[in-house]
């Protein structure tokens, strides 16, 4: 028996050039998976692919707009044809949206941006891969949400509704796909501050919230109010998320489905 968690598995990661998607892709490859990373920005995908190849892993890249249902379905079909099927899929696509603006000043467009952006791509990617999964060999679909799914705080209406929607999507999809031998598990990390995740996306996302608290984004996140609001007094790292994703995607937790893995460091206690 191989000591690698994902030996012989075929994994597709949408948003594979991003911080979380790239971290997960690297760990999946390290654990023996053949990794297919897809996203809109070729340069970002190339960086992740080079890291994986340099470490001796198996990786292929594709420039795909995950909002384009036809393009995503064509890509999934091509992956399945080349690899003989899809065993694991993760949608790690990010959508820039507002956090920190209260209802009185929040536009309908900003409210709907994360709801439409996150849930549309989650639907498109899940539908595309599910038809190539399961039956004779177990399939796993992993999703990502945020503590906003359950937090009762102001200024995150669109964000919170989209996060709750992603978690509901995961649970319901798990029920639908269980007869086909496909597991669906959500992963709920908190804000991530290490590595490339601490770049412009994170800073722009939390600018309003930090300003309202009279802090810089760095002060809010790294050792500030967000970290101190967790039981562990820290925020999750990219490694925390990627290592957990690899374990959840493995056959070692073959009876886990329809649930959310809480990586919020205790910001939420389920």
Automatic annotation (TrEMBL):
Keywords: Oxidoreductase. Pfam families: adh_short_C2 (PF13561). One of its GO terms (molecular function) is oxidoreductase activity. CDD domains: SDR_c. InterPro entries: NAD(P)-bd_dom_sf (IPR036291), SDR_fam (IPR002347). SUPFAM superfamilies: NAD(P)-binding Rossmann-fold domains (SSF51735). This is NAD(P)-dependent dehydrogenase (Short-subunit alcohol dehydrogenase family). It comes from Actinophytocola algeriensis.
């Amino acid at each position: 028996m191989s000591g690698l968690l994902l030996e012989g598995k075929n994994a597709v990661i949408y948003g594979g050039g991003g911080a979380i998607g790239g971290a997960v892709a690297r760990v999946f490859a390290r654990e023996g998976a053949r990794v297919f990373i897809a996203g809109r920005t070729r340069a970002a995908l190339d960086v992740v692919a080079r890291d994986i190849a340099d470490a001796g892993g198996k990786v292929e890249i594709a420039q795909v707009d995950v909002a384009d249902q036809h393009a995503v379905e064509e890509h999934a079909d091509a992956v399945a044809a080349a690899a003989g099927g899809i065993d694991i899929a993760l949608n790690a696509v990010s959508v820039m949206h507002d956090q920190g603006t209260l209802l009185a000043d929040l536009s309908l467009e900003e409210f709907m941006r994360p709801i439409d952006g996150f849930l549309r791509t989650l639907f498109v990617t899940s539908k595309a891969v599910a038809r190539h999964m399961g039956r004779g060999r177990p399939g796993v679909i992993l999703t990502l949400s945020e503590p906003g799914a359950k937090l009762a705080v102001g200024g995150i209406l669109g964000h919170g509704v989209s996060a709750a929607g992603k978690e509901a999507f995961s649970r319901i999809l798990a029920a639908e796909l269980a007869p086909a031998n496909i597991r669906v598990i959500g992963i709920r990390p908190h804000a991530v501050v290490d590595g490339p995740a601490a770049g412009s996306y994170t800073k722009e996302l939390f600018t309003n919230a930090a300003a309202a608290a009279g802090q810089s984004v760095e002060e809010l996140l790294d050792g500030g109010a967000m970290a101190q609001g967790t039981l562990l007094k820290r925020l999750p790292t990219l490694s925390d998320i990627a290592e957990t994703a690899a374990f959840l995607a493995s056959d070692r937790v073959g009876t886990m489905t329809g649930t959310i893995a809480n990586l919020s460091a205790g910001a939420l206690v389920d």
